[in-house]
Specification:
alpha+beta; three-stranded antiparallel beta sheet; 40% strand
């Protein structure tokens, strides 16, 4: 069995592939962050998860924040890596469809990107779409479970992705994405022995605040 020291970097490397078109963001210094710390970016702010040992990095040019956490259990050989991504994005062309159409297409692409990320042996186990209202805002969501292999190690993924479209989306064309992805092993071969805890994203959704007036991106 691989040691935890080797397993965690392997899991982390896969999450980097999933979350970023370019891994250069993670080459930047990742800093520790205290629980419930306010993080401000252009156009919005969030509060860091309440748990200890979280780290983060900002990608200001992409208006994105990454929150990172890893844990392991030396007794069971279990290892888990979690990355939360929150960002502001915008349509290039004028908004001409219903919001739900944009949400469905974007959420489906999230799953497709992982399936075709180049990671070996990817198998999507289940996919579930829903919408929910949190602090008066409607979020469109997709959740899926998957398995994959890397360096002969069987790994598992739980992913939840939320989209929020402000009331002025048709004019501003700006929307916000919230993604939490937990990758883990199952060293004892028992299903769900080390399944991920997806609760942090709900605290982040509740803490999310945006500028009162969001203007269209320049040149878009």
């Amino acid at each position: 069995m691989k040691t935890l020291r080797l397993i965690l970097p392997v899991i982390s490397a896969v999450l980097l592939i999933i979350f970023s078109e370019s891994n250069t963001v993670f080459a930047q210094k990742i800093k520790s962050i205290e629980p419930n710390t306010l993080i401000k970016l252009d156009g919005f702010s969030i509060t860091s998860p309440s748990g200890d040992d979280w780290e983060y990095t900002l990608h200001k040019s992409r208006k994105e924040v990454y929150l990172y956490y890893e844990s392991s259990n030396i007794l069971t050989g279990s290892a888990t890596s979690t990355i939360v991504s929150v960002y502001k994005d915008s349509l290039i062309t004028p908004a001409e469809k219903e919001v739900k159409e944009y949400a469905d297409a974007y959420l489906d692409k999230n799953v497709s990107d992982f399936k075709h990320s180049g990671v070996a042996g990817v198998r999507i186990k289940s996919t579930r779409k829903s919408d929910t209202t949190i602090t008066g805002r409607k979020f469109y969501a997709i959740a899926y479970n998957a398995s994959y292999r890397i360096e002969n190690l069987q790994l598992y993924l739980d992913d939840v992705f939320f989209l929020y479209f402000p009331d002025d989306f048709e004019e501003s064309r700006i929307f916000f994405g919230f993604n939490i992805s937990c990758s883990y092993n199952q060293p004892l071969g028992i299903f769900n022995i080390n399944s991920s805890d997806l609760k942090p994203v709900f605290g982040i959704l509740k803490s999310f605040k945006m500028q009162e007036s969001v203007k269209p991106e320049t040149g878009k």
